[in-house]
Specification:
Elements lengths: L1 E6 L6 H16 L4 E6 L15 H12 L2 E7 L7 H9 L9 E8 L6 H13 L3 E2 L4 E4 L12 H21 L11
Parallel strand pairs: 1-2, 1-3, 3-4, 4-5, 4-6
Helix pairs in contact: 1-5
Length: 184
Amino acid sequence: MKILLVDGTVFGRKTGAILQQVEKYIADINPSLDLEILYFADLKHQILDGSPLNDDMKMMIRKFEEADGYIIASPIFQASIPGVLKNAFDMISPKAMRYKPVSIVANGGTYQHHLVVENQLKPILDYFRCLVTPNYVYTHTSHFDDSNNIVDGDVHDRLRELARVFVQYCEMSKSLSKETIDTH
């Protein structure tokens, strides 16, 4: 199975650091999964405005379509997900992520911003009809050292648990048909 770990921002390094840790934990549990981190900071983004898509955006869409599961990482800026992440979701076909497992990790500067995951990110993934795992991990700036290493043991435990549940969702999703009956 191809698993796409998405660093949904062009600013900062904490979400990438979280994804690298999750990648290790997933690989420890199931080394047969094909894991790839997609760093939005490495892409030339364009706004979805009807003009032809550049090669980076075509590649990003293809990676989403070809993946069998996702770990979505988002910082929380101004009590919202980054515009590049929402713009990326706007480019993806509503059926591309259907019935595929997804876990969420996020990082913010206040403890209250975890609600962005519940109020913004989960509804978008529900629209795509993803199999969103019930546990997500929200981290705070204080959970990292100056080199963006996760220094909080509880966060590591929650990331291990997220990886374990995600791998189980991957196994469960293998027998679920991705073919759609409806036209929505």
